[in-house]
Amino acid sequence: MRELEGQDMPVHAWSGGRTRWNRFALGLPKSHTIDALATGVMDHERGDALVRMPAQILVVASTGRGSYARTTPDRFGFPRLQRPRGKVHHGYSTGDLVAAVVPQGKWAGGWVGRIAVRASGQHRITTLTSRFDVSHRNLRLLQRADGYAYGFAAEIRLSERQGPAYSGHTLKGGDPGNV
């Protein structure tokens, strides 16, 4: 904050109570996205309001980048089998987003999903609805695995009445934006 003030930038500080008051006065539900929009000084008597509300938000989940362990232990902790040294097989690594065109068989057709690689070349693809094995020859890379999964989700719908859109208990007993 001091660094921004040193660069002649306007800096203001306020509590989370002001954000809650703005949200209540505008009749908005509790959501992290809406809280970011309702932050700061708003003069409700003058007519300050939010002009646009997001219809959807980007959801990012951490998926990791694999394990450094080179053995799989049994229930007593002794090494049960050895994992391969390399994580890349036939040009693909676990977590890559691929398009698969399966020419024949039960899973014939086009599929898009994440893969788990095997040294044999028969990689396992996981789509939104199913999971099956496919040859590396039938795959096309769409995105390299970067340790995250991306998707879009609808933002909370606003209520028609004035006041907070959520009342009573929430499913997790906490922040309704996380339900």
In brief, what are we looking at here?
The protein is an alpha+beta fold and 179 residues long. It has helices at residues 2-6, 16-26, 32-37, and strands spanning 56-62, 71-73, 79-82, 88-89, 92-93, 97-102, 109-116, 122-126, 131-135, 139-143, 148-154.
Keywords:
179 residues; alpha+beta; SH3 type barrels; 2 domains; five-stranded antiparallel β-sheet; two-stranded antiparallel ribbon
| Rg over C-alpha atoms, rounded to the nearest angstrom | 25 Å
- The number of distinct structural domains comes to 2
Span between termini: 33 Å
Strand order of the largest sheet: 9-8-7-6-10
What top-tier CATH class of the largest domain fits best?
Answer: Mainly Beta
Assembly level: single chain
* Number of E strands: 11
Annotation field: number of helices: 3
CATH-assigned fold name of the largest domain: SH3 type barrels
Corresponding CATH architecture of the largest domain: Roll
Assess the beta-strand content as a share of residues. 25-35%
Give the helix/strand class.
Answer: alpha+beta
> Low-confidence runs (pLDDT<50, min 5 residues)?
159-179
Helix and strand run:
HHHEEEEEEEEEEE
What is the global morphology?
A: elongated
Helix content: 10-25%
Q: Kindly report the average pLDDT value.
A: 81
What profile does the largest beta sheet have?
5 strands, antiparallel
